[in-house]
Each structure stands twice: as C-alpha cells, then as structure tokens.
Amino acid sequence: MQLAFTPDEIAAIVQPRAARGATAAVIRGISALGTARPGDLSFLGNPKYRSEVAGTRASLVLVPPDYTGEPAAGQLFLVVDQPSVALARLCARIEQMLRSPPAPGVHPSAVVAPDAQIATTAAIGPLCVIEADVRVGGRTCLQASVYAGRGTVIGDDCLLMPGVRLYPGTQLGHRVRLHANVVIGSDGFGYEQVNGRHEKVPQIGQVVIEDDVEIGAGSTVDRARFGRTIVGEGTKIDNLVQLGHNVVIGKHCILCAQTGISGSTTVGDCVVLGGQVGVGGHITIGKGVKAGGQTGIAADVPAGTYINGTPALPYMLERRLAVLHQRLPELFHRLDALEAQVKKSTAAK
Amino acid sequence: MQLAFTPDEIAAIVQPRAARGATAAVIRGISALGTARPGDLSFLGNPKYRSEVAGTRASLVLVPPDYTGEPAAGQLFLVVDQPSVALARLCARIEQMLRSPPAPGVHPSAVVAPDAQIATTAAIGPLCVIEADVRVGGRTCLQASVYAGRGTVIGDDCLLMPGVRLYPGTQLGHRVRLHANVVIGSDGFGYEQVNGRHEKVPQIGQVVIEDDVEIGAGSTVDRARFGRTIVGEGTKIDNLVQLGHNVVIGKHCILCAQTGISGSTTVGDCVVLGGQVGVGGHITIGKGVKAGGQTGIAADVPAGTYINGTPALPYMLERRLAVLHQRLPELFHRLDALEAQVKKSTAAK
Amino acid sequence: MQLAFTPDEIAAIVQPRAARGATAAVIRGISALGTARPGDLSFLGNPKYRSEVAGTRASLVLVPPDYTGEPAAGQLFLVVDQPSVALARLCARIEQMLRSPPAPGVHPSAVVAPDAQIATTAAIGPLCVIEADVRVGGRTCLQASVYAGRGTVIGDDCLLMPGVRLYPGTQLGHRVRLHANVVIGSDGFGYEQVNGRHEKVPQIGQVVIEDDVEIGAGSTVDRARFGRTIVGEGTKIDNLVQLGHNVVIGKHCILCAQTGISGSTTVGDCVVLGGQVGVGGHITIGKGVKAGGQTGIAADVPAGTYINGTPALPYMLERRLAVLHQRLPELFHRLDALEAQVKKSTAAK
C-alpha cells in the first residue's frame, strides 16, 4: 500500500498548534530524521536528535513547541505538543486504512452453520468456515479463510487474520488479535507406550485465550489433555511460538519468536522470554522472570530472576562463565607451565 | 465446547461394577482429585493418590474395586476395574464429540477434480481443494480448507485438520492424522551456486507418510530431491517440526516440538528427540537414540545412546561437564593461588 | 505422483548422441547407481562412481561419452555430453508435470475485488481471496487458497503455493516463489509498557520481497513499524524461518530452516546462516558471514567471518574451546595433583 496524504490531511489528524513553512509534497512515507527523503514525514520525538532537524530532507516534520528552528525551502514544520503522540495518532489512522475488514455481516462465500450466533456488528470474511454452536462477539472481524470449530466462543472486538484455525471448544476473550495461520487448540502431544507402539492419549481439554492477548503468525497452542491451556490477559506472543498442552501463561507476559514451552508448565505474570527459548515440561517459572534468547530452562525458576544460557543460570553468572570459557586455552597453558616448573623445582632438590 | 454428561450417561460409558452414593450434578469437566470442583469427574488411577479421594470436591469419582471409602453427600463413586482405562474410554467418547467431521460425502463448497477417486465413506469438508488424480480412502476426513495436490494418495481412516497442504504426489498411509496447517511435500532446500547466484535444484521426489503417523500443527516436511522423504510407521511428530528433503525417519519415533532435521539424514526406529533439537544433514542416528531438548547433532550417533548438549555428547558426560563449567571461577582462583605459592617458594630458595 | 516415461520419451528429452542396449521397462523413478532398482533411471554424473555402473540394477543409465562399458541384458545406456545437465533437464520437465497450475484466468471459486488488476496470463486458483487494489503480474500463479491483502503488488512469473497470506501493502518482485502457508507482512512485535500493560505500537510499514527470492513453507516475515522490511534479490529462505520488523536481508543470502532474526537487524549480501540460528535485534551482520547451525548472534559480526556457537565466536576458536571444554575433568585432576604436590613439597622444607 502506498501512503498518500496531503499536508492538510496530516494537519487534520495531528491538530498542530502552529505551522511554519510550506510544502507541496504529497506525504508517502514516514522515516527517521537522518534517513528521510523528500516526500517523507519525520518527527522530533527524542531531544537528542534535535540537531538532526536542520539537516533532514523530510518534507514535513512534527516538532515540539520548544523547537525554534526554521524549515528549509519546501519544508513544513507542524508544531505539536508531543510529536510522538501525534505520530502514534497518525500511525493508528494509517493502520485502519491498511486493514481491509470485510463490512459487517457474513460474506456470501463463507460457510456458516445455521445455529452459529454471530453478532450483527461482526464481520465474517470470505471463505471462512464457522461450525455449529459457535458464538462471535460484537465488532469482531474474521478476515478471510478462518476456521472456527464447533462450540468456539470468540469475544468482542477481536481480529482474526487469514488462515487462523480454532479447534472445537476454543475460547477467546475480548480484543484478542490472532495473526495469519495461528492454530489454537490442536491436540496435545501425549502418547502412552504399549508394546513398543505409541498409543494416543485423548486430548479433550480446551484452550482459553484471555482478553487483550495478541499471538503472532504461525504460532500454535495445544488444547489441554483435560482441563484448560490458558494464555493470560494482556500477554503478547510473537511468531512461530509453540505452547504445549496444559501450559498456563500468566498475565502481561512477552514471549518472543520461536520460543517453545512444553506441556503442563506454568509461567507467572509479567514474564519475558527472548527468542528461541526452550522450556521443559512440568516447570514453574516465577513472576517477572526474564530469560535471554535461546535460554534452555529445565528446572523451576524463582520469581524475579534474570536468566540466560543452556542450562539456564543467573544472567551475570552465565556471562562471567562465558568469559572464563574463552580463557580455557590460557588456563591449559598456565597449568602446563606450572607443572613443568614444579617438576623442575622438585627434581632440583 | 462445554461437556454435559448426566451420571447415567457416564455410567453407560464406563460400565461400572457397582455404584456408591449419588449426585444430582451434571458433569462438566474432568480434573485431578486435588483440583476438582463440584461438577467435575475425577478418578483414582494411581494408588499414591488414594488419600486424596476422601477430600476431593469432585461430584463423581471412578474408583477401583479395592477402594473401600464412602462418598460424601452429593457425591457418586463408580467402581470400575481399572479407573484409567475407564477414563480413557470416556475421553475417547468426548473426543469424538469434539470433532465435527463433515458427514460422508463432498461438501458443495469443495473444489474437486472430476477424476479424483474419493471413497463413498470419506468426508471432504467445506472449501477443500482436491486436484486431479487424487485418491482418498474409506472413512477418511478432510476437515475443511485442505489442499491435496495432483496425484496425492490418502489412505483409509485418516484425519486431516483445517489448512493442511499436500503437495503433488504425496502419499499418506492409513490412520494418518495431520494437524492444522501442516505442509507435506514442499520443495527441498537445494541450490547450486552459479556465478554468485543460487540456481534452484529441481525437487521432484515425493513424501511418503506411513501408517499411524501423527504430525502436529504447522509442521513441514519437504519432498525429496528425487526419491522419497519418509516418515516411518507409528512415528509421532509434534508442532512446528521441520524435516528436510530425503530425510528418512524410522518407525515409532517421537520428535518433539520445533525440532529440525536437515536434508538426507536418517533416523533409526524408536528414536526420541526432545524439543528444539537440531540435526545436521547427511547424518545417521541409530536405533533407540534419545536426545535432550535443544541438543545439536552434527555427527552420526550410535544406536541406543542418550545424548545432550551442543555439540551433542553422551548425557552423563555432558551433565558432568556442565557442572565443572560452573566451577571455572574456582579453577582460576586455585590456579592463581598455586602460581603465587610456587613463585614465592621458588624465590625463597 | 507416479512417474511413467518410456525410454523413447526420455530420449526425446535428453537428446542422446548414442544409445547402447535396450529396455522394455517403463521408467518410474530416479535413483543413485548403488540404490537403483529395475524401472529406475540412474546416471554417471561423478567419475568416482564409474565402477558402480557395471553393477547397477537401473533399467536406464545416462552415461558420458568416455564411458565405454556395455549394458546388461534389458538395460539401456543413453550417451549424453553431460549426464548431470541431462538429468537436470529431465528433472525440470518432471517438475513442470508435478505442479498443477490452474489454467490462466480466475477460478470461479476465487473471491476477487472488482478493481484488482490481474494480468490475463496470470492464474488465480480456487478459493483465493484478492482484495481491493491488488496487482498480479504476467504468468504469475496463485495455486489455491492464497490471500492477497489490499494494495498488494505481485510481479511477473511468481508462484504462490496454497495458503500463502500476504498482508496489505506487501510487494513481491518477479520470479518470487512462496511455499505453502508462508505469511508476509504480519505485524511487527512492538509494544510499549504503560502502567504494567503492553500497549501496541502500530505497525504500518510494509514488506518488500525482491526478485528471485524463494521462501520455504510456514515462514513468517513481519511488516516494518514504518518503512520497509526487505528481503534482497536472489535470497533463499528455508522453512519455518522468522524475520522481525524492519529487518533488511541482503542479496543472495541463504537462511536455513527455523532461523530467527529479531527486529531492525541488517544482514549483508551473500550471508549464509545455518538452521536454528538466532540473531538479536538492531545488529549488523557483514557481507559474506557464515554461521553454523544453532549459532546465537548477539552482537555485530564483521564481514567475511565464519562463526559458531552461543555466544557466537570465530569458528576455529569455538571448535577449539569445545574440545578444551571436554577436557575439564582432566584439568581439575591435574590441578588437584599439583596442589597436593606443592603442599607436600612446601611441608617438606
């Protein structure tokens, strides 16, 4: 999508207290002061970049009231109380334009069970499949090709991007945002070994995604064996993350891309896991724990600790050990020399 | 989905030898003895939890014949020979209810090539695409939005969840279960460097998935360069696993989530790989090998070994080295002290 | 898909200079000399396998002009200038047959916005969704169930496999190949913490995929916060790879499966990252860098270096440290012995 805003349209959105200069440019991009080109909008959000305003090639710059510099020729400064807030308002407007929600109602190509209860303000996009006994809340949008299995409950103001798959019985709260090809409610990975073969343990629980959760593209959340796999309110999950059966994630956590959490593990509130973190099964991670990228967690982690490495250790210790590890050649050399010296000294006696 | 079983319906499924007590509750959940609430069913599967039966709040408890305790008021005990077997039977029944297989036949919204051969007992759900020359076996169900490329063969009693993608020529055995958004038969990752550019090596082989294989949501299996990528009978694969071209996985293996196996690697029967394991290309992993989570395997592994770490080492050795690694600071301190002592002692002479 | 070529059909494709022997077999597979079975085609591409030709069970063998051996009974040798080139030509032909591109035009089951601009030679397969203002170039094929969001631009000769999801504003160059269930343009993972909650930072940029890029099944590429996430010309990306917002990948790179790159990181031209590599955010990886599988990159990497391990170190150093790490038990034993000896020697004085 190509942006195209006239300076007047920008002004209508950001509501400046004053303007200096003028530009004939149509605004087609947003960029930092240093990299902006003509046709871009930029902004002075952080005072430390103040000196860059004078040299920027941006056609339009959002500046704070205390910035007194004058624009170059063909350049427009819009004076706003908080440039970063004004920018956020503009970005939110652009975001709305980028989405193409189907109009409220059910697209004729969607396949919807007769007894599904769909709010009149909800939008069911093309080629969605809505099974029996599904409920969809107000202003919720299923963008296209979304599958909602039997008995699924989807709250208000949710946004489900194309290719989302909800297994039967999934429950989504309000304002849940699921990105393309997310899978919620797939069978947990449970087998019992019987005569050398793996017999499937039925996975008949469900998944509950609480309010204000966002889950990134291609991530997968398994249903519980029985009971519920839970993702707590306000938690944000990145792309290609895997949550096993009966996992319970607390509120307001951040799980970065490609992290995986094995079955029956409990993660406390406000935990932050970096990318590609792996967590074993039946583990408890305390409230507020932080883990660096690729950390491997095989045991309980006390609340509030910052861990790193495989096996996971307190961050500062792990960093110190990594430095000493690189001094292993020195260690061997010193030991060789000392052994030789002691041997010589012993022989000399 | 909300469970709702009357006690009589439960009894009809588990066929108790006797009953003690009574409950008016409708059973809406299954839970462990310690966490059960009124309306839940629980069970005494493991004798070590025997003492928990007396205090459980479950409305209905499956107990073995040798359990002699009496139920509380409003509580029903059903006496069954093996509570865990009775529970499995109940769960299997619930699982059937959770699935919403389309009725046998082809949903009118599916796009099916005229020459596709679909068993009369098979169910092709809404918005599936079945290309030319595809064969679908008896009682097999393609849930919704499944793509089966030209010449695909799908056996009997298979279950393909929404969004499964089968590239042309894929072969599935009987009782294969593929979870949502699984991709089978994508091109292997093969290029030849020609004048600094990567020229694609055609990937014209296929993928064969043998009987009783289950593959988790979002996993991907590449087609062979030529010949066949194979997943052996009874092998179970978790979510977001990647198998490269010409990989051969043995029978009855367990591959946990986010594991990746590079091209042309062979994995023996009954191998168990933990989560996020990485295996290089052209490697042979012997029968019965076990690898811990995040293991990095860059060389052949003899049959029957248990390995861990990156680079992969025998498990006990790797654990011992990890402990010694944490003693590196001590090692440096001791060496410093010893050097000082030897220096002093030499100087004293 | 079952191959079925008569020897005459093979000859018509590979154009041999001469033939020796004859076979009545229909060619149904391609295999290496050592593993070929009757009905297979094989080839002598590398002189070191010359001795294997005499014993191969292949029904048809492509041999170079300087190979003078005679075929067995029922075996056909086709003499070609370069067997590997002849094989590639045959494979390319087979690959065409494996694909089942919809005929040019829009399948009646696709949902296409009236103002979408679709080249007359393009093929829009069944159940695709094409939103407003999309452009699709000549000879491009959207196989089935592809979603193209508003304002998406797709170049000429692209191939988009089933289940590809393009968020609004995505730009694909020419000859781009996206495998099944690839997601391009999902929101970047950006939040600001406000009163203990994570407030979403709008992600209004886009993704640009340049010419001749191929991306493997299930991979995800996030849109920029603002500006552009870029994958450079000729770069090849394997399955289940994750690229964060504002990542810039250079030209002719190779990113192996399950690798993840965090936001705002820049990767130079001709970089090769092994499988499951993790790269932190706001990092610069220089031109021509190579990284082994599972490498963890947390800091800038100078051009041309070969790195390995977590934390990433120069390859030779990391290998040496790994060897010394395994000698830690020896180190402790030697230090114990030396301490004892020094103690004794000191006591003796």
Description:
3 copies of one chain form a homotrimer. By secondary structure, chain A is α/β, with parallel strands linked by helices. The first copy, chain A, contains 5 helices and 38 strands. Chain A has a 12-stranded mixed sheet with strand order 6-9-12-15-18-23-26-29-32-35-37-38, covered by helices on one side. A 10-stranded parallel sheet of chain A has the order 7-10-13-16-19-24-27-30-33-36, with no helix packed on it. Chain A has a 9-stranded parallel sheet with strand order 8-11-14-17-22-25-28-31-34, with no helix packed on it. In chain A, a hairpin with a 2-residue loop joins strand 20 and strand 21. Chain A is flat, with a radius of gyration of 28 Å. Chains in contact: A-B, A-C, B-C. At the A-B interface, strand 21, helix 4 and helix 5 of A face strand 2, helix 3, helix 4 and helix 5 of B.
Question: What would CATH call the class of the largest domain in chain A?
Answer: Mainly Beta
Question: Which pair of chains has the greatest number of interface residues, and how are they split between the two chains?
Answer: A-B, 65 and 63 residues
* Cα gyration radius of chain A (Å): 28 Å
What is the CATH architecture annotation of the largest domain in chain A? Answer: 3 Solenoid
CATH topology of the largest domain in chain A: UDP N-Acetylglucosamine Acyltransferase, domain 1
DSSP strand tally of chain A? 38
Helix proportion of chain A: 10-25%
- Strand numbers in spatial order across the main sheet of chain A: 6-9-12-15-18-23-26-29-32-35-37-38
How far the N terminus sits from the C terminus of chain A, by CA atoms, comes to 86 Å
**CATH H-level superfamily title of the largest domain in chain A:** Hexapeptide repeat proteins
Oligomer kind: homotrimer
Rounded average pLDDT of chain A: 94
Low-confidence stretches of chain A: none
Structural class of chain A: alpha/beta
> Sheet with the most strands of chain A?
12 strands, mixed
